[in-house]
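re: that chain from earlier
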Amino acid sequence: MAQSSATNIIDEFALFRGNGAGIESWISASTPVQVIQRLNGIDGEPISHAQLNQLLILSHEAGVSDGFFQYYWLSGSALNKTHPYNVTRLPDYNPTYENLEHISSLPHLKWGLYRFYVDALLYFGNVRQAYRILREKSYDQLEDFFRSKRFDTSRLTSRGAPLAMKTIAKDDRYLIAEMACKTYDATSIQTLEHGLREEFKRRSAEGTKRVTFRDLINPTKQASNPRQVEMEFSMNEVLDEAISSEEEVTSKIEPILRRFKASREKALDNTNYYISMIDDLDVYVATSMRTREDFRKMAEFCDEIFSHNRLKDFSLRYFDPTLSAASGHEDKGLIECLMVKCAKLLVYVAGERDSYGKDAEAAMALSQGKPVIFFCDAETRSKFYRDVHPLSRLINFTNGVPVGAVVTDKIDDVIEIIKRVLTNEMAYELQQGKPGHFQLLEKLTRSIVRLQTADIMLREAFWNYYNIGHRQ
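^ sequence. v structure.
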C-alpha cells in the first residue's frame, strides 16, 4: 500500500486519536501496517466482527463482544427509542448500515466510533475506561444501560396538569421576598411606622418643606440606617411620594401591608404545592432578585419559557421563584436544596450581580450530573460564563464525570434545550481542543458539556483515586 494511502486513513481518523494508550491510539502512526492495509481495502471487502477483533488485537487492544459490535455499527433508528440521544444525527450515518452484518466503509467505521466516544464522554468521562467497561457487554446489557439514562417522555406528556399555583400579581411579587418580610412582619411594622413618624417630626421641626419616604429612611449625618437597603426595597413604590403629616406615613404604607399579607399567604401555599409534586418536578429556576423590577422580569421570563407552544405537551412542573416563600431563610434553603436535588434540570438566570445562593444551586445540579442551562442577557455575559466562570465546569460527584453547563443569551435556545432534554433529542459534536483533550459540545449553543483532559498524569491519577473514599 502506498504511503499516501496510509497517511490518508490515519488523518481521516485523527478525531479519535488521543494521547493515551488503548482504543485512543488504535488508528495512528504506530498502528501495524497490516491493520492499515485491511482498512484500506474495506470498500471491496467489508469487515466482520471477527476481523474487527483481529485488527484490534493486532493493535494491542482488546476485542469487543458481538453485542458491542451490533450496538455500535449495525443498529440505528431503532435505538432512538432506547438511547439517550438520536444516534442517526451523528456524522457519517447512513440508513443502509441497519441492514448489514459487517462494517462496510470507513465512514461506517467512523460513525460507530463517533457514537462510542460520545457515550464515553457523556457517561464515563474517560474514553479508555468506557471501552473497558462497555466492550464486554451484550446487546441487551448495553440497551438496558443506556435506556436507564433516558427521560420517560411518554409519561411526561400523559400525566396531565398539576394543581394550579395561586396567582400573585407580577407587581406584587417582590413582596414575598425575605427583605419585605423583615419589613412588614407583625413585630417589625410597628417599629417601622414609629421610626418613620419620628423622623418626619424631626425633619418638619427643622423646617424641611418637602419630605418623602426616601428622605425618612436614608441615613443622616448624625446616624446611618442599617435597614436602609431592606426598607428601600420594601417601600419601592412609595419612596418618592411626598408626606404632609404623620398620619400620611401610615395611610400610604397600609395598602402595601395588606398586599404583602395576601401575597405572602399565597406564596406559602404555593410552596406547599411545590413540595407536593417534588417527586415529579421537571425544572428548577435559579436566580437572584434584588429589586422590584427583578421580580417582574423573572415572572415574565418564566411565563415566556414555560407557556411556550413547544413545551405545552409536557404540562411542566417548574419552580418559579417569584411565587414561593418560606417561614424563614433556613426552611427556604432546605426547600430549595430538595427541589434542586429532585428536578430533572436547572435553568440559571444570570442577573446584574452574582449571588452565593444561585451559584450554589447551579453547582449542586452540575455536581449531580443534571443538565444546567445558563441564561445570560448579553453576549459578553454569555462568553464570560462559557469560557471563564468556574461553574461552567464541574464534576459529577457520583461518578467523577466532568460536566459543563449549556450557556446561551437567547430565550429560544432555553426553550429548545428544555424540549431536547425531555425528549432525549440532545445533539452533540465531538472535537479536540488540543491533542488528546476531547470535548463534547452541545450543538445548538456550542457549549462544552463534557471533556477528557489531555494531561495524562492528571487523568490517570484522577480515575485511579477518585473513588478511593468508597473503598476505605
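The first strand starts at residue 211 and ends at 212.
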